[in-house]
Amino acid sequence: MEKINEKVNYCLNCKTKPCSNKGCPLGNQIPQFIEQIKQENYKKAYEILSETTVLQGICGRICPHQKQCQGSCVRGIKGEPVSIGDLEAFTFDAMIEKEDSLLNCYAEEIKKNKSNKKVAVIGGGPAGLTASAFLAKQGLQVTIYEKYDYLGGLLVHGIPEFRLPKEIVKKTVDKILQLGIQVKYHQQLGKDILLQDLEKQYDAIFLSMGANRSSKMRVEGEQLKGVYGGNELLEHQLHPDYKGKIVAVVGGGNVAMDCARTIKKLGAKEVKVIYRRAREQMPAEDKEVEEAMREGIEFLFQNNIVKIIGKEKVEKVELIKTELVQKEEDTRLVPVNIEGSNYEIKMDYIIMALGSEVESYVKNLGLKTNKWGNIAVNENYQTSNPKIYAGGDLAGMKATVAWAAHSGREAASNIIENLNRS
After folding, report:
1. Considering its fold, how many domains does the chain have in total?
2. Of 94, 140, 206, 422, which has the fewest Cβ atoms less than 10 A away?
3. Residue 330: what pLDDT?
4. Are residues 411 and 336 in the same domain?
5. Which of 68, 95, 122 is the last residue of a domain?
């Protein structure tokens, strides 16, 4: 408690509030909720956060705070920023035993806005959960269709336990479902349920199935046994035996860090992260990179894979060093291969963690897609079918939990506005 008091008293409650207005994708009222913690009014702090988010305990733990809220904190200009993430997580934890806490925040609104309008939400990840909560808050009848037997999406199967305890996700989901949301499990779009059938049953549909198919490098040897997609490994937990093995993880984001750290904990002899740019350009949060380094993971910065070598399975990998060059059309330095700098290293497994793509069935939904295969949406998150909305990774939003939640909340707002007009 002494540390919490120290953290809340460190906040200046400045007039411009860049942490909220600039740094937070959800626009959380950060100084306001911190002020309530100062006064030990944790319920009010929770209520303030609940105006903009329903993922307090999650975002407080796994958001890239240094790139978002804390990165915009005034105190961070000359010293350490306010520990906003820790304080958000503390607020959730302080209310976690109050079973109806979120329902209490919204009870009056739900009662006042009671509606017969029905909305289907496809996918129970961060975008879908957030959309469902804000739709239910406005009195709409919400049903989530989820392909697994649990809700949370990548919060459960994409982020390791050491970064986000599953119990926190479960308690977050439980609080959201208390708003009166129905769930139908084992319902995969295109297999167990069809979009055209849902259109007949619901006034609006929100698609939020995510995009969890690992992108490929398209280099020679990528088809060899021993090459895995990072997203699929984390989702399905079908890891090979890493004991005594040398493993390369290709990529520089949080998925790459999660894969590398998980594989190291599972007993790999050596884990090397291969990244074609410099450390300063890594999208992964600094604290995740630092943790990986402390755990003995080696980083090969400014290295690019040229070829994966082996007969039937991975035996070696050929790398080439890169230099960073400024090109007029790019906003950041571009890695360019240095001719003649090729070299080979022994390798047993290679994990591709370069980003993600939508599942192949998405192109058969009859909705317009963009050049990357994501479902195309307008500024109101509407697809080419005005009755159907989409958000999160499926619609190509920025790949963080907070941005996915932001898209779910904003889509819900537009659904409500359009249904009220009809």
Report:
1. 3
2. 422
3. 67
4. no
5. 95
Q: Is residue 308 part of a domain?
A: yes
Question: What are the strands of the beta sheet with 349-352, ordered from one edge?
Answer: 227-229, 349-352, 246-250, 270-275, 298-301
The answer to the question of residue 102 being in a domain is: no
CA 224 from chain centre, in angstroms, equals 29
Only one residue has tokens 């004991």, namely: 243
Tell me whether residue 383 is exposed, middle or buried, using C-beta atoms within 10 angstroms of its C-beta: 0 to 12, 13 to 18, 19 or more: buried
The token duo for 280 is 């300063």
Question: Is 16:64 a contact under the CB 8 Å cutoff?
Answer: no
Query: In terms of domains, do 194 and 133 share one?
Result: yes
**pLDDT averaged per 10 residues, the chain (length 422):** 81 90 94 94 93 95 90 90 94 82 78 88 97 95 96 93 94 94 95 94 95 86 95 90 96 94 96 95 90 97 96 96 84 89 97 88 90 92 96 88 96 95 77
Instruction: Based on the fold, state whether residues 320 and 234 are members of the same structural domain.
Output: yes
Q: Which amino acid is at 345?
A: I
Residue 101 lies in a domain: no
Is residue 378 in a domain?
yes
Same domain, 348 and 242: yes
Do 196 and 268 fall into the same domain?
A: no
Residues 218 and 298 in one domain: yes
Query: How far from 251 is each of 231, 245, 315, CA to CA, in Å?
Result: 12, 19, 20
Phi, psi of 327 (to 5 degrees): -115, 145
Print the domain residue range for 351: 214-355
Contact 248, 274 (CB under 8 A): yes
